[in-house]
């Protein structure tokens, strides 16, 4: 196996889970579609920051997008037990009903004892900006449809959600519509997606909505459970 835990998605939930798991000695793979959007907020992140979190370390150094992103990415990449890598997961690798890794758009397969989906607003998203519609989970980050279609093939159900980003320096406002796991697909107390053994979900893709601090806390909760 490449990792003990493979986390798909390096937003607040996935990155925070990876950092906390690695700090307790677990070998973690942290995969993201785009290394340029690791731990990148839509709008500045306001204190208070959850105690003991990566956010508590980096938040005071820069609450705005790129400053926060670069400080967090530096810590994740330099952690001896985290392999931060760019790949887009397209399918789960399965042995019977058990997940043993992921396949990727780029080609490489990565294997792990446990797989965590922390894919945020990237399951079948549509981004509306002015008269333009894109398949993207955030501005400038396209989403491939494969993983969502594969999860549907496996029988997972989804419900639609939507969120708005207000206009900010240099960018007009926009809206993202996305899918999240349907109630019943996710066990809130274990964070498991029990349709597949060894599969977990964390953050926006299972909660539907919530603040950055909540995503951070959920990432830390996952690390404590695994
Ligand atoms: C449009 C919008 C605006 C929001 N604004 C705010 C706000 O202002 N304040 C606030 O407190 N909360 C806001 N939220 C809510 C929530 O706090 C954020 O969405 C937060 O970023 C969610 O964290 P996350 O880690 O679950 O997912 P995300 O931050 O979305 O991270 C998902 C990660 O998964 C990766 N990924 C997705 N699919 C794949 C794949 N197939 N393979 C590999 N990697 C993949 C992406 O690259 C990304 O790294 C907003 C939500 C949305 C949708």
TrEMBL record:
A GO term from the CC aspect: cytosol
Pfam families linked to this entry: GIDA (PF01134)
Subunit structure: Homodimer. Heterotetramer of two MnmE and two MnmG subunits.
Keyword tRNA processing assigned: yes
GO MF annotation terms: flavin adenine dinucleotide binding
Keyword terms, alphabetized: FAD, Flavoprotein, NAD, tRNA processing
Cofactor list: FAD
InterPro entries (UniProt xref): FAD/NAD-bd_sf (IPR036188), MnmG-rel (IPR002218), MnmG_N (IPR040131)
Start and end residues of each MnmG N-terminal domain: 5-38, 70-157
GO BP term, example: tRNA methylation
SUPFAM superfamilies listed in its UniProt record: FAD/NAD(P)-binding domain
Identification of the protein by name: tRNA uridine 5-carboxymethylaminomethyl modification enzyme MnmG
């Amino acid at each position: 196996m490449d990792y003990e835990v493979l986390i798909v998605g390096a937003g607040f939930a996935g990155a925070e889970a990876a950092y906390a798991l690695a700090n307790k000695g677990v070998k973690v793979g942290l995969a993201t579609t785009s290394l340029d959007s690791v731990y990148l907020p839509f709008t500045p992140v306001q204190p208070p920051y959850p105690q003991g979190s990566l956010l508590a370390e980096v938040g005071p150094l820069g609450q705005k997008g790129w400053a926060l992103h670069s400080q967090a990415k530096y810590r994740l990449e330099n952690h001896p037990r985290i392999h931060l890598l760019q790949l887009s997961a397209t399918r789960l690798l399965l042995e019977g009903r058990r997940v043993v890794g992921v396949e990727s758009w780029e080609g490489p397969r990565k294997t792990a004892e446990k797989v965590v989906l922390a894919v945020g607003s990237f399951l079948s998203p549509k981004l509306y900006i002015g008269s333009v519609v894109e398949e993207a989970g955030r501005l400038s980050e396209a989403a491939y449809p494969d993983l969502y279609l594969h999860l549907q093939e496996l029988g997972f159900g989804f419900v639609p959600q939507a969120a708005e980003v207000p206009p900010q320096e240099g960018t007009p406002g926009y809206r993202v519509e996305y899918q999240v796991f349907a109630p019943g697909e996710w066990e809130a107390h274990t964070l498991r997606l029990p349709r597949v053994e060894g599969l977990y979900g964390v953050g926006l893709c299972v909660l539907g909505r919530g603040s950055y601090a909540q995503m951070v806390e959920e990432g830390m909760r996952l690390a404590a459970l695994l």
